[in-house]
Every structure is written in structure tokens, then in C-alpha cells.
Write a structure and sequence with these properties.
167 residues, Aminopeptidase, eight-stranded mixed sheet, 32% helix, globular
Length: 167
Amino acid sequence: MLTSSSLNILPLNKEDLVLYLMGDDVYEQKYSLNAWGRTIPPVMQEMMVEGTLPGIDICSPQQLYFFTLWIAIEKETASIIGEFQLKGLPDKEGWVEIGYETFEPFQRNGYMFEMVQYMKNWAVDYGITGFIAETHQSNTPSIQLLKKMNFTPVKQEKHLIRWKCKL
């Protein structure tokens, strides 16, 4: 687990990821966290069940961090405020794609900046040289976050912008 000033950031093992994907505060109830009505969008559930869970099954214990979902728990309220994921092992140059989300009740509070910053620091210790991210061109908060984190736009296809950040 990583700990910042206001967040506990932890990777989910397979058992916990399955609980987490049930939504309806099942994970929160098991770990005595604040149950605020977190749900899992069907598209996210499908991605996790078809991609993330099978990836966890075939990865080594040391590789789990690169395939599972990391969650951020706000310390003061014990609420899960967002998610972060490394999308597989780094490429041969040490770059890895990331994804992240701050849940609506917790947006615009700097939590994702804090989480991504801690994940950047953690990643350096694991030999990662850079992060890659994609965001929709209309997702202004995400674009602002990426700029603030020193990501540079490198490619735009249709409505998606691809960003890179050397660590």
C-alpha cells in the first residue's frame, strides 16, 4: 500500500478485485469503508472480467501490480474516491500505459493529481521510464490533469489524444 497525505493507494488482489467489481458497496462493507453507492459501469465490468482478471491469472505475483486495479481511499472519510491502472507490463523502453478515474462525488479536489504523482514515484522504483495516457478531447478535467503532471500530447486520432510523460 502507498500512503500520501490524504490517500491510501492499494492494488487489489484477484479475490478483492472480484468483490470490488460487484459494486453495490460489497467491497466497502467487507473492509468497513464508507459505503456511498459506488457502482461499476457495465463497460468497465466487461473490460475487467475479459481483460484484467485473465491477466491476473497468468501473471507472476511480482507482475500483479501491472495488471490489477489500484484504488484510492480518502483517509478522512474512508471512501473509495478513484481508481488507477497500469495496462500491462512496460514495453522494451520502459513505457507503460495508464488509466484512471475519479468518482463523481470526489472530482475537482486534487485527489487524482495526488494519486498519479504517487504512482509516478512508485513506478520509477519498478524500472518504468514513462507513462502513456489517452483521453477524449472533450475531457477537459483529464486534459488539465495531464498538463499539470507534465504529460505532452504526442498524437491525436479522431477524438482521442495520446499523451506521454517521462518519469
